[in-house]
Design a protein that fits this description.
The protein is α/β, with parallel strands linked by helices and about 500 residues long. It is built from 15 helices and 23 strands. Helix 4 packs across helix 5, helix 9 crosses helix 11 and helix 10 packs across helix 11. The site of zinc ion (ZN) has 4 residues, from loops.
């Protein structure tokens, strides 16, 4: 079909056909694999044929002449993974092969998270078209980005009606550029200073355009449950599907309450609100150290002290980046306190002042061990919670290189928390449905050929806090829009990624 069109076009114009972004007429047979198709159905023996950028047939298939054949005997063939919360939009233009994401099997990154997005969104769409990343992007519009545009540096207050109108107009135009909804990062500046009513007003604009809402909620530790309630209220009052980003219970006050969190989500769903969540498979988060100060007053030593107590002490805080003293990276806050002869809250105060204060120009990042595995395992098992990496090329957290292999190795194979087909559904068809990616997330004829070949006996993550970029093992082949970007464990250099709705042939 593709070859015929090519010939006709060449004949009409009388010039040689120049390769388009996706060369047509390429046919590839993935033969002999065990298909886990994304729907949640049990694995079954099936061959998969790729023609150009799409899956053209699934079943018992014989190679056709000239066709490339990939032997998948002993391997599981699954849809490419859709990363529900990705920061691959940060730094990808310098590393468009996105190797850490591809090696995990991620074929679509859902970006524009935590309230921050490319602005205008059209710039990301154009960059994807021109620079061609190895994987696909879909993007939210960041509330924090809208707020900064409308309010500038004067954002530590509620928005005025005129500012809200300006935010709504930009949101509408970004939605028209293909954004899938509105994201917030209510624990961070400038979203932290917004009232719930402001978010509801913007969520209504997103809902009117068929969009959805996703949120790094206002607080993930002491006040996690109040923050879930705020998200439920936004979903109810804006009549919008809503997702809790990287759900976690990050303090002593919240530990052990995963069942209760899932029950609350279930109750909101029973009341008619499409609430979902995503989770990454680690017991530690990475962010700014300032997240540890819920008073957001860097001079308030008691605020630092309270949150250190709530996570179990300064030994749980690993400084992974600190530009004023780069050699401190890799040390715990407990070690640094002893060495410098300061209390842990005093150390945190100094770190915040040097990076956020009026004279501070540096940057910092911490990895904090704050979650319980019993809670994580309940989120991993819940059918309402999909998976994410929360990673990207600029991140120093092992989740950036290890999330999906870790779920498949540790939680599926070793701990047997969920069946393989259910884990893969939560990586593929479930996020595709929630994010409106209609032609991705399953293996079926006519859909986009985003595929992963994995060895379930071997798959496992190897990234650690000390070596966060270590490659996973057990994922040998990854196809994006029909092109092999990882072939037999080797990055091919192909960059066939598309932007969200730019899904034409
Ligand atoms: Zn976040």
């Amino acid at each position: 079909m593709f070859a015929a069109g090519t010939t006709a076009a060449a004949g009409l114009t009388g010039v040689h056909w120049a390769p388009a972004a996706d060369p047509p007429s390429e046919s590839c047979l993935i033969s002999g694999g065990l298909l886990v198709d994304g729907s949640g159905a049990a694995p079954r023996r099936a061959d998969v044929r790729i023609s150009g950028a799409v899956i053209s047939a699934v079943g018992t298939l014989k190679p056709i002449r000239g066709e490339r054949v990939v032997q998948a005997r002993g391997l599981v063939v699954s849809p490419g993974f859709i990363d529900a919360h990705s920061h691959a939009d940060g730094g990808w233009t310098d590393a468009p092969d996105l190797e850490s994401q591809i090696r995990q099997g991620i074929t679509t990154a859902v970006v524009g998270q935590d309230g921050g997005s490319a602005t205008p969104l059209e710039t990301l769409r154009r960059a994807v078209r021109e620079r061609r990343p190895a994987l696909n992007f879909a993007s939210y519009v960041g509330h924090g980005t809208l707020r900064r545009l409308a309010m500038g540096a004067d954002y530590r207050r509620a928005a005025t009606p005129a500012e809200l109108t300006a935010m709504s107009e930009r949101l509408k135009s970004d939605l028209a550029s293909g954004a899938i909804g509105l994201s917030t990062g209510l624990e961070y500046d400038p979203g932290f200073h917004s009232e719930t009513s402001e978010v509801i007003a913007l969520a209504r604009v997103a809902a009117a355009a068929g969009g959805r809402y996703i949120s790094h909620i206002r607080n993930e530790d002491e006040r996690a449950f109040e923050s879930f309630d705020e998200l439920f209220r936004i979903a109810r009052e804006a009549q919008i599907p809503a997702q809790i980003s990287h759900i976690k219970l990050g303090s002593k006050h919240a530990w052990g309450r995963a069942d209760e969190a899932l029950r609350r989500i279930g109750e909101a769903r029973a009341a008619g609100h499409a609430i979902t969540a995503d989770v990454y498979p680690y017991l530690y988060w990475q962010s700014s150290a300032t997240v540890l100060n819920s008073a957001r007053d860097w001079d308030d030593l008691s605020a630092w002290e309270t949150s250190l107590q709530s996570i179990g002490g300064a030994g749980k805080v690993h400084l992974v980046r600190y530009t004023p003293r780069p050699e401190w990276a890799g040390r715990t806050l407990a070690e640094l306190s002893t060495r410098e002869g300061k209390s842990p809250p005093e150390m945190l105060r100094a770190i915040a002042r040097n990076t956020r204060g009026p004279d501070g120009s540096g940057s910092e990042s911490v990895v904090v061990e704050a979650m319980q595995e019993s809670d994580l395992r309940k989120f991993v098992r819940s059918p309402l919670v999909m998976f994410c990496s929360d990673g990207g090329p600029l991140s120093a957290h092992p989740r950036s290189a290890g999330s999906y292999p870790r779920i498949l190795g540790r939680y599926v194979r070793d701990l047997r928390d969920i069946r393989l087909e259910e884990a893969i559904r939560k990586m593929t068809a479930f996020p595709a449905r929630v994010f409106g990616l209609r032609d991705r997330g399953r293996v079926a004829a006519g859909l986009r050929a985003d595929l992963v070949l994995l060895d379930t006996a071997r798959v496992r993550d190897q990234a650690t806090i000390a070596d966060p970029k270590a490659r996973p093992i057990g994922i040998g082949w990854v196809f994006v829009n029909g092109r092999a970007v990882l072939a037999n464990g080797v990055m091919t250099g192909e960059r066939p990624g598309r932007f969200g709705t730019d899904d034409g042939p």
